[in-house]
Amino acid sequence: MSSTRKIGLAVAQLGPIHLADSRESVVQRLLAMMREAKARQADFVVFPELALTTFFPRYWMEEAEAVDRFFEKTMPGPATQPLFDEAKKLGIGFYLGYAELTPKGRRFNTAILVDPSANIVGKYRKVHLPGHSDHKPDAPFQHLEKKFFEVGNLGFGVWDTTGVKMGMCICNDRRWPETYRVMALQSAEIVVLGYNTPSHNIHWDEPAHLRTSTHLISLQANAYQNGLWVAAAAKCGREDGFHMIGNSVIVAPTGEIVARTLTEADEVIATVADLGIGELFRQHVFNFAKHRRPEHYGLITERTGAGEPLPRPVGDD
Ligand code: CDT
């Protein structure tokens, strides 16, 4: 179960970023991990969602204040240019999540794919925005992604970069099978993503251990069912007292975890991803062209929420 098509793949997990931390100090941490990733033979390194600041949707504030403090007006900008310079010097590609303010004043939760020559080759804007837009003064913290961001308008893209077909998504997207299937139907071989997952769910009394197990099961099941590698980078630990899960992982197309962080601090994990493993699954059990039956999947795009059962033929033919 091995081929000659391989890519050095690293995930750079970030420990907490506190409100008082500057972007410049965060970029220094990202640079240190980028160098470590390269030293460990990585061709590509995955950074987290909203990787330049604290997870600010936990705080109630007006949009203008959020834009002022937490959004990037250009990419690269003065604080992030060193990431691009170092990537080019090292010859390593990267995924970076950040809050994007567009020239027209629109706000998105965004990630970019940067190639080893430091060109931005792909952009993704988060589609599945969790949380709420109203103030919940009784909750221990907020989850205001629906207030601060618009639903992404670019779809789930796949790019040919670093010798591989790579797709990307962001955090909550990883829990939805449609995310991966749309990319797999564009022949994605690797899906990369970053996340900020609070260990406490403010919406219902979810047992804390499920936050990690549902994270892992989503990645593992979707890697297997689509015959692709998944590399997921957390921002984690206690940001000013608000805890988020770690467990950054690299998952093979077998559904198995091949690398996993041990800490809730800055930590690099790396593997050499054999792309032939995914090809085997996509040639056999998940040979889409041979086995998929889209004529029976219509409800997936026709309905958003669950509705009544459809009338079915009785099958007496
Ligand atoms: N950042 C992000 O998307 N976090 C969500 C938390 C969902 S609970 C409101 C996640 O799926 O991890």
UniProtKB/TrEMBL annotation:
<protein>
    <submittedName>
        <fullName>N-carbamoyl-D-amino-acid hydrolase</fullName>
    </submittedName>
</protein>
<keyword id="KW-0378">Hydrolase</keyword>
<dbReference type="Pfam" id="PF00795">
    <property type="entry name" value="CN_hydrolase"/>
</dbReference>
<feature type="domain" description="CN hydrolase">
    <location>
        <begin position="7"/>
        <end position="277"/>
    </location>
</feature>
<dbReference type="InterPro" id="IPR050345">
    <property type="entry name" value="Aliph_Amidase/BUP"/>
</dbReference>
<dbReference type="InterPro" id="IPR036526">
    <property type="entry name" value="C-N_Hydrolase_sf"/>
</dbReference>
<dbReference type="InterPro" id="IPR003010">
    <property type="entry name" value="C-N_Hydrolase"/>
</dbReference>
<dbReference type="GO" id="GO:0016811">
    <property type="term" value="F:hydrolase activity, acting on carbon-nitrogen (but not peptide) bonds, in linear amides"/>
</dbReference>
